[in-house]
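Fold sample X.
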Amino acid sequence: MNTLSPPSLQHAHTRDFDEQASMLEGWNQHYSQLSSGAFEGAITELVFEDVHLFMEYTSRALHQSGKLDSDTLAVGVPMRHGQGGVFCGTAMKGPATHLFSGADGFDFYSPTRLLMGGLVVSRHAFQDWLHDRPAVFADDRARLQTVDPQTLREAGSFLWTVFDLCQRSPQLLDRPLFRDRLRNSVFSCLADIADEPGQPANGLSSSQRRSLVQAVRDYVENRPEDPVSIDDVCRDLGVSRRALQYSFQDTLGINPAAFIRARRLNKVRAMLREGDSVTEAATAWGFWHFGHFSHEYKKLFGELPSATMKRRPRP
């Protein structure tokens, strides 16, 4: 992955599956068509720093095979498809993402009308971002990755929102701060996917869970100017997301994200009162789905972000 190239946002339509197979650089892909009818496809790609996001549409059932290099971590998010589909020997039935990375490559009998989102990053960069947390996606085997249905929906929504935002406001990609926040959000999305349902909470006792809740409170309150996220907390305190979730649920009966979300929304409100646009303020604090953001904002403050802007102090 070339980290020196300028940000790039591209879209292409195809009517040839061989042409489409060659579009994702470095995937060494081969497509064979399995269902009848003329093929139609499309790929939208966003590349910046060491991050590659894409959305790919294929109208016909295909046999897809390929292999990525060892430092590439590629996770697919199925966003829409017809019936059927088998990925690396496992049928596409329940909520799952596709881990395309693996020493032996991947083998995919893809269904008709497939819209697949993709998050592709440097494996080493992602592990560095995780800091001293245990390695994820570490078994080096392409497979389906079981995820919570809500996690799958949020990952798809995140990709939709990023592409929509960057197509409407491409100048944002010229801003290093925007790219840095987007990169962190991509890594955060991957960390969410890595937390498989049913993972244990690291065997924490009740007293350890209460101590963890207090540590999180102190961590957040001692960083009044930082956009603290769940991933920051997990990385710096050395705990898993699931352990954090269980600790807050056991101790306070609430979601740990609720406290941090409220704090982030207050920071957005402060930016709006300083005259920043809704888009800049929301993305600055990690809100990428504007429909959800507006709902949460109104739920907390009793008004839409635009109303807060209208009431901002005048010079």
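Fold sample Y, listed below.
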Amino acid sequence: MFGAIRERIGRALARYLSKAIDRGRNPSTSMPEQLAMTIRKGDVLLVDGNSRFSVAIRYLTQSTWSHAAICIAEHDASGQPMPQMLEADVIDGVHIVPLSKFASFHTRICRPVGLSPAEIDEVVAFAMARLGHQYDMKNVVDLVRYLIRTPPLPDRFKRRALALGSGDPTRAICSSLIAQ
């Protein structure tokens, strides 16, 4: 029962937190064409997002980056040179998006060092096997919990609220997907 309630609360919070906020002019790190020419299959793209969720993640982690995606292909399905990224999105779950989604954001490419093309293919296949998994809503609730110093919960639920992550292998957050 607590899990179903947490899921509903998490979805409602996710819709609110995923709304973009105006932070003034936030120039991208590079020209979109330059980014597309540079990124390679297996690269991880770190993103400084513009949502309430992104602001909270940056605040809690003390990092510039609030999101990560992995490049799964350097061309789209029609063969055009448009890199395809796999991401775990709070609303849409694990899905494929074009690199152009991140064109207006501050980004950083992290390239794997010492991996052979076959090993990069294995990493991409592993990530692709997670397509369709849902975002771990427990992490959304945990994020809000960290932003509220004393959560308005009865004492009997406070200890249970301390655990991070659902532990469900069909749930993901962008950083756990990349780390796996």
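Sample Y note: The two ends are 29 Å apart (CA to CA).
Also: The mean pLDDT is 78.
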